[in-house]
Amino acid sequence: MWTVNNSGVYVMDTYYPIGSQTSDLIDDIEVIFDFDHNNDLHVGGVPDSIESEGDVALVIVGDRYRLDTSEEEVWLTRDDKAYGPDTVSQWGAIHAEENGAGGFDVLWERINGDYAKWSVDGTGAYQSDIYMPVGSLSDTDVWELETTFEADLDGDLLIGEPIP
Predict the structure, then answer these.
(1) For a surface tag, which of 71, 77, 90, 92 has the fewest beta carbons within 10 Å of its beta carbon?
(2) Residues 78, 154: one domain?
(3) Contacting residues for 25 by C-beta, under 8 A, at least 6 apart
(4) Same structural domain, 23 and 91
(5) What's the domain range around 23?
(6) In the prediction, which pLDDT does 29 show?
(7) Which tens digit of pLDDT belongs to each residue from 140-152?
(8) What burial letters (b/e) apply to 18-57, b meaning 16+ CB within 10 Å?
(9) What is the Cβ-side half-sphere exposure of residue 135, based on CA atoms within 13 angstroms?
(10) Number of separate helices (H) and strands (E) present in the chain
(11) In b/e form, how buried is each residue of 74-85, taking b as 16+ CB within 10 angstroms?
């Protein structure tokens, strides 16, 4: 595999002898080239589903988060770095949905119950976030998040505001 600079000039190459390619290496190469090299019908390995409620499925492939829609697969990034379950200690992505502005909203939960909502563009690149410490959300805030992410976050078996 060759590495080139921004002008397309050769910088270095990496040789992978036959038999030396692990499944993780093949998965990484598939992600780099966005191509299914081993014909397993997945780019980057078989995804593990976090959630698939709504129009967007949030999955883990290898050590990265991916958003799957019926039309595309989008990898989460921030500052041009891949994001996955081990990127930020104590935080994990739990839900994702399209936001109507050509991108996605991703809901994160911290192990202490804090939430954060990321807005990412159509390529999965981080744009902004809203931090919501545990105890700071009103019932209305939770119901709004439930409606946005099409998920029951407060355990009442309903999505959104209960009907009196």
Answers:
(1) 71
(2) yes
(3) 16
(4) no
(5) 1-46
(6) 78
(7) 999 999 999 988 9
(8) eeeeeeeebbbbbbeeeeeeeeeeebbbebeebbeebebb
(9) 1
(10) 2, 12
(11) bbbbbeeebbbe
